[in-house]
């Protein structure tokens, strides 16, 4: 389907449920897609960080993406992560995503070796030219050790290389500078790149990003409570900032589930992804809560803490809040 211009709304990075053998649980993944669409989301981002894409084989990536595309049935756009180290490897993923019916691609800068901004620009331009699909840049310097500067993003937005940016940099000042350079909150539609989408990857400051002029949110926690993020987005669009802030504060408290796993025993990513999957299992959406090796699974005590966070956020086991 054609992407809206700009891409907007709540676009969760879809978790990838796994079975006891570590394979993609396609039945659970299809139910998760329905759960997200029932929550009112505006798009789906398959094979992102929250999807554990870095842990999946190429075959598993294809199974996960095909399942999401099939389950979505054209109701919302499906963005496919094509994250890898070099342009050639990313292009292989991009061609596979196009064959499987993705509506757009999401790519980081090249990584492992450090690259110059000119090389990063050439990377994105080659992907856009070679595939013809809309391309969203994924700014996640903690993972790829390169920060996409506002100047580079604006350049690639203005020449049509990029359809959008997913900002997971954690640098709110840089995000604000980008939004201002694109025309600011009120002048974005007539700015230098009117169809370009700016999406925040932050679960905790979505209301602030929307107030600054961002077009949407890509929250990992949106797997658990998609309706909550949709309510936040709708309040922001209506200019009801107190209501948006109240919803954000409830979601901040819910996000505390990501620290359920003790820091002395497991990585923060393992804890967060394990918590999202445990919550989805408790809500009756997915069958199991396994995460890909070598991530450490949550203990039963940690899962109980996730359950308490769900209850405090008015999400009942087996019955997501409307």
From TrEMBL:
InterPro entries: Aldolase_TIM (IPR013785), DapA-like (IPR002220), Schiff_base-form_aldolases_AS (IPR020625). CDD domains: DHDPS-like. The keyword Lyase applies. It comes from the Bacteria. Keywords: Lyase, Schiff base. Belongs to the DapA family. This is Dihydrodipicolinate synthase family protein.
């Amino acid at each position: 389907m054609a992407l809206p211009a700009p891409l907007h709304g709540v676009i969760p990075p879809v978790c990838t449920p796994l079975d006891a053998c570590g394979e993609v649980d396609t039945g659970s993944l299809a139910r998760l897609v329905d759960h997200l669409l029932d929550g009112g989301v505006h798009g789906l981002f398959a094979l992102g960080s929250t999807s554990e894409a870095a842990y999946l084989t190429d075959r598993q990536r294809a199974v996960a993406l095909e399942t999401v595309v099939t389950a979505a049935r054209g109701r919302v756009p499906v963005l496919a992560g094509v994250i890898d180290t070099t342009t050639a490897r990313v292009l292989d993923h991009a061609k596979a995503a196009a064959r499987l019916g993705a509506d757009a691609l999401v790519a980081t800068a090249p990584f492992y070796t450090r690259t110059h901004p000119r090389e990063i620009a050439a990377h994105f331009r080659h992907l856009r030219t070679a595939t013809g699909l809309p391309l969203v840049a994924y700014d996640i310097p903690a993972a790829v050790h390169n920060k996409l500067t506002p100047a580079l993003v604006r350049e690639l937005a203005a020449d049509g290389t990029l359809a959008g940016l997913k900002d997971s940099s954690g640098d709110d000042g840089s995000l604000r500078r980008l939004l201002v350079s694109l025309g600011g909150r009120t002048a974005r539609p007539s700015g230098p790149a009117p169809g370009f989408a700016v999406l925040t990857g932050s679960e905790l400051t979505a209301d602030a990003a929307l107030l600054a002029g961002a077009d949407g949110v890509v929250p990992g926690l949106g797997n658990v409570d998609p309706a909550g993020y949709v309510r936040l987005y709708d309040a922001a669009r209506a200019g009801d900032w107190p209501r948006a802030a109240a919803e954000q504060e409830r979601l901040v408290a819910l996000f505390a589930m990501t620290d359920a796993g003790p820091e002395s025993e497991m990585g923060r990513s393992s804890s967060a992804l394990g918590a999202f999957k445990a919550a989805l299992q408790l809500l009756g959406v997915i069958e199991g809560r396994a995460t890909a090796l070598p991530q450490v699974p949550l203990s039963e005590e940690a899962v109980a803490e996730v359950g308490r966070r769900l209850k405090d956020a008015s999400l009942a086991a087996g019955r997501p809040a409307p």
